[in-house]
């Protein structure tokens, strides 16, 4: 399957596809922003309002943390893993040479977006559509993942670099306590963002022929 030039009816489609192609994982980040905090807030807020969810259940919960508040997340993560080191569950050398520097690089960024799912909010829909009850938790997680991707694309479009992390359940309890979050909010991912200080690694692709098929063309 070769790539051929196509013409779209709406020029925004080309722009969207370019954003998808250019989205990368950036680990080298600094605590500076190319846009206002209000603009960042609008991006994250619009993800909460407009990213779809099955049966319009709206179970995604999102917290935006900037500057010193963002740094607290990674202080919590460092402390949690230091506890594992002290308990003998994580080798001290690997923590000091690998894990801690990585966490400190996240801390050096500008912000973190915390993505949660409120599974308890699904109780009414599970009761109403009992035949699908076991599907609603995965559906909620899929909606949350769409929010993560939307925010990631939008932030990179505005000049940020970002990387997506998953430090649950190590940090969950302390994060909920620090920001007074409801117990029903279950943390799924942490999107770290800041101004890039280095280029991302080379993007690699498995053969598209093994992953995509077209019928009826």
From TrEMBL:
GO MF annotations, alphabetized: oxidoreductase activity
Pfam families: Nitroreductase
Compartments, record wording: Cytoplasm; Nucleus
Nitroreductase domain mapped to chain residues: 20-194
GO biological process assignments: cellular response to oxidative stress
Gene Ontology CC entries for this record: cytoplasm; nucleus
Main subcellular location of this protein, as a coarse class: cytoplasm
InterPro entries in alphabetical order: Frm2/Hbn1, Nitroreductase, Nitroreductase-like
Chain coiled-coil ranges: none
Keyword set, alphabetical order: Cytoplasm, Nucleus, Oxidoreductase
PANTHER family: FATTY ACID REPRESSION MUTANT PROTEIN 2-RELATED
Family, per entry: Belongs to the nitroreductase family.
Protein name as it appears in the record: Nitroreductase domain-containing protein
Native organism taxonomy: Eukaryota, Fungi, Dikarya, Ascomycota, Pezizomycotina
């Amino acid at each position: 399957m070769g790539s051929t030039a196509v013409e779209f009816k709406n020029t925004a489609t080309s722009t969207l596809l370019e954003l998808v192609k250019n989205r990368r994982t950036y680990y080298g980040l600094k605590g500076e922003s190319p846009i206002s905090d209000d603009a960042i807030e609008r991006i994250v807020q619009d993800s909460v309002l407009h990213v779809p969810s099955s049966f319009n259940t709206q179970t995604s919960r999102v917290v935006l943390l900037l500057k010193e508040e963002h740094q607290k997340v990674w202080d919590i993560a460092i402390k949690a893993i230091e506890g594992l080191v002290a308990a003998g569950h994580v080798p001290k050398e690997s923590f000091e040479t690998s894990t801690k520097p990585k966490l400190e690089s996240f801390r050096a960024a500008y912000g973190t977006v915390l993505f949660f799912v409120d599974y308890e909010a699904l109780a009414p829909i599970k009761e109403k559509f009992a035949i699908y009850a076991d599907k609603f938790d995965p559906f909620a997680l899929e909606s949350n993942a769409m929010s993560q991707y939307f925010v990631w694309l939008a932030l990179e479009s505005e000049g940020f670099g970002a990387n997506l992390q998953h430090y649950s359940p190590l940090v969950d309890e302390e994060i909920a306590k620090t920001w007074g979050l409801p117990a029903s909010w279950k943390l799924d991912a942490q999107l770290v963002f800041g101004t890039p200080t280095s280029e991302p690694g080379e993007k690699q692709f498995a053969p598209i022929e093994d992953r995509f098929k077209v019928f009826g063309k």
